[in-house]
Amino acid sequence: MKTVDNFNFSGKKALIRVDFNVPLNKSFEITDDTRLKAVLPTVSKVLKDGGSAILMSHLGRPKGGPEEKYSLKHIIPYLSKMFGQEVLFADDCIGADAKAKAAALKPGQVLLLENLRFYPEEEKGDVEFAKKLSVLGDVWVNDAFGTAHRAHASTAVIGQFFKDKVCGYVMQAELDNANKLLTSGEKPRTAVMGGSKISDKILVIENLLDKVDNLIIGGGMSYTFTKALGGKIGKSINEPDKLDLALSLLEKAKAKGVKLYLPLDNVVADDFSNDANRQTVKTGEIPDGWEGLDIGPETVKLFSEVVAGSKTVLWNGPMGVFEFANFATGTIAIAKAVKEATQKGGYSLIGGGDSAAAINNLGFGNDVSYVSTGGGALLEYFEGKTLPGVAALEK
Question: Is 230 tagged catalytic?
Answer without folding.
Answer: no
